[in-house]
UniProtKB/TrEMBL annotation:
Originating species: Nocardia gamkensis
GO biological process, one term: lipid catabolic process
Leader peptide range in chain numbering: 1-22
Key words of the record: Hydrolase, Signal
Species classification: Bacteria, Bacillati, Actinomycetota, Actinomycetes, Mycobacteriales
SUPFAM superfamilies named among the record's database cross-references: alpha/beta-Hydrolases (SSF53474)
GO molecular function: triacylglycerol lipase activity
Name this protein carries in UniProt: Alpha/beta hydrolase
Length: 399
């Protein structure tokens, strides 16, 4: 029973291993953000929009109906080569021609089919995006590389590719809005939950630095992001502050993903104990659910990882240090725009010190930390989302 409880916690947990981002985007093909295809997903009047959000336990104001679309667009791989990705774009059904944009970054998923633009199962991440559009904003939600309809595997918590996939969806959304005879305000509001919290920080950092032509950042509101892998998230995954199932999922996902970018091992047996070494990479192929993965691996990181990789998790050297450098650093900038961090002391997936470390790194009077109390990881999103939307509406109205 205890093991099942750990597994269920891991399914609910939208984890995310802290992510940093480069100060500039990689050199890239000239057609980044070009639309490959557009698929209508839903078109709802206000009353149906309100009912849909209520069914998803989202209690936010509904100002208008929404039209939602899946865009497939051109972007780049972690190595800078051409690829495609998919993402969700939701527009308000209103007479407004010029729309302010909210970029919502989703939390940890392992199934391609759970990404916001393709999910038909639980809809939680899609509905969070819809909530912003229902309030009058244009809303985008990248599926990230390797999720949704994107080819290949997902580079989990690799901040540079989270940034590029998010930025290129903004470009695609701008082109799509123009096709609808509408215009997007270039100053973006950025938010996200769990892995999406750190992806939001990565995107906000790049927008603030001016490395995404045509777009800037107006404000940033990440929720429960694991911003400090080396000093908070990984140690907490090993010492029990993170629930065991979530810790196993997080560390295994991060290692297999980063090994494709910064080779950490030549053979899985170097990083993972048997019998898990023989199946761990297949488990993270985009076609296995979180609960399938957690029930296929051991109960704790100490039973899954080899002694050497248990040590590298908190004392990275060589390729591991390079990988950590691309998962940390999203808070290493001084914002000139308002940044509100949201986190809870009751979070057993992404411990509160992540946000404290981020606040210290930002070192700016424009950054604040909102303590959400003792709610759990999923509860932090439910609590923070209405507050964030209210803040956005008061300070940065949709049009």
């Amino acid at each position: 029973m205890d093991r099942l409880r750990r597994c269920l916690v891991a399914v609910v947990v939208l984890l995310g291993a802290a992510a940093g981002c480069a100060d500039t985007e990689p050199e890239s093909p000239p057609d980044r953000g070009a639309i490959v295809s557009t698929t209508p997903l839903m078109s709802l009047p206000p009353e149906q929009t309100a009912a849909l959000l209520a069914d998803g336990d989202i209690r936010t104001p509904v100002r208008n109906g929404v039209d939602a679309f899946r865009l497939e667009y051109r972007t780049i791989t972690p190595q800078g080569g051409p690829t495609t990705a998919s993402g969700l774009v939701v527009l308000p059904r209103s007479d407004s021609r010029r729309l302010r944009v909210v970029s919502y970054e989703h939390g940890t998923i392992t199934l391609k089919s759970d990404a916001p633009s393709v999910d038909t199962r639980n809809l939680s991440e899609r509905l969070r995006t819809v909530a912003f559009a229902a309030a009058g904003y244009a809303a985008t939600a990248p599926d990230y590389l390797g999720l949704g309809n994107g080819p290949g595997t997902h580079p989990y918590t690799h901040a540079p590719s989270e940034t590029s996939a998010s930025a290129d969806l903004l470009r695609a959304a701008g082109s799509f809005a123009a096709q609808q005879h509408r215009e997007l305000d270039p100053n973006v509001l950025v938010t996200g939950f769990s892995q999406g919290g750190h992806a939001a920080m990565a995107l906000g950092k790049a927008l603030h630095a001016g490395t995404i032509p045509g777009f800037g950042v107006a404000a940033l509101a990440p929720i429960s992001g694991p911003y400090d892998l080396q000093h908070v998230q990984a140690p907490a995954a090993l010492d029990g502050r993170v629930v065991p199932g979530a810790a196993v999922l997080f560390l295994s996902y991060w290692l297999t993903s980063m090994n494709r970018i910064h080779p950490l091992y030549d053979d899985p047996t170097e990083a993972f104990q048997q019998p898990y070494a023989d199946k761990v990479e297949e488990l993270f192929d985009g076609f296995h659910s979180e609960i399938t993965i957690v029930t296929s691996l051991a109960a704790t990181p100490a039973q899954v990882l080899t002694p050497r990789f248990l040590q590298l998790a908190t004392e990275p050297t060589g390729a591991a240090a390079a990988a950590v450098a691309e998962s940390d650093g999203t808070c290493d900038w001084q914002p000139r725009v308002p940044v509100r961090l949201y986190a809870s002391h009751g979070d057993r997936a992404v411990p509160y010190p992540n946000a404290e470390h981020c606040l210290r790194a930002l070192a700016s009077g424009n950054a604040t930390l909102r303590d959400l109390g003792e709610v759990d990881h999923a509860g932090s999103a439910r609590t923070a989302l209405p507050e964030i939307l209210d803040w956005f509406q008061r300070e940065f109205p949709p049009n």
